[in-house]
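Why do we bother with a discrete structure alphabet at all? Because it lets us treat a fold like text: something you can write down, compare, and reason about line by line. To make this less abstract, here is a complete entry for Calcium homeostasis modulator protein 5. Read it the way you would read a sentence in a foreign language you are learning: slowly, and without expecting to understand everything at once.
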Amino acid sequence: MDAFRGILKFFLNQKTVIGYSFMALLTVGSERLFSLVAFKCPCSTENVVYGLVFLFAPAWVLLILGFFLNGKSWRLFTGCCVNPRKIFPKGHSCRFFYVLGQITLSSLVAPMMWLSVALLNGTFYECAMSGTKSSRLLGLICKGKPQECWDELHKVSCGKTSMTPADNEEVKLSLQAQSQILGWCLICSASFFSLLTTCYARCRSKVSYLQLSFWKTYAQKEKEQLENTFLEYANKLSERNLKCFFENKRPEVFPMPTFAAWEAASELHSFHQSQQHYSTLHRVVEDGLELSPEDDETTMVLVGTAHSV
């Protein structure tokens, strides 16, 4: 049992690495599936558009999905049209761009993986570049090759050119090599940029390493318990309402946060050294929210805990 707990703890501690590894494997598998099943280079003047669509369209879809599946996106934008102050709070106007940058960077992981894998494979790039009409690119690709390379480059991917098989294969290998070079350049650039942004964020951190570790642990535990509490209170409220409906009686007062408390707890969190609140919910509970007269139906009053100390 202790060994099982140790293994489980190890996987929980490495869940970010495991998640990215799984994403990488999924990306590789998806790219191979696209290449073998869906992708058929037309070997015509449409090569450029066809190849670029297969190269960038999945990356764009993954970027959109990244924004959709990121909880911070909806925390940031929910209700912003009704109350723009939610995304541009007084005194923290730049907070919106900081959080948006975090969301964008995390959403770029999957598209960058797709582009890297697709470029390393070389199939999409080879098809796209073989349809180019640029004299500069044609001179680079067909340097030292017969005239047929200039006239029939779009047929190289299908092997239907008038060139010898050796020349046709050489051009294909040259295009694939260019694609792989771009792929490795993209991987190296993304890795270096990720390192720079992480170092910059840590250098600008207002808390120590140990406190930051505690903060991450607290945030994860709060998220887990918040979901469990949502489920518990939703079950209790639904049971009360159904019971009152079928028994035709008035409901008892049910403890719920005020509207203002929901609004305050949904705001973006900003850490202040003078007030060590590790989440927006933590700040709301510590600072407190008085019950307004129009909210008498609720009994969960968040009074000023911090102000009364």
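What the structure line is telling us, in plain words: The chain has 14 helices and no strands. The chain has two domains: 1-204, 257-307.
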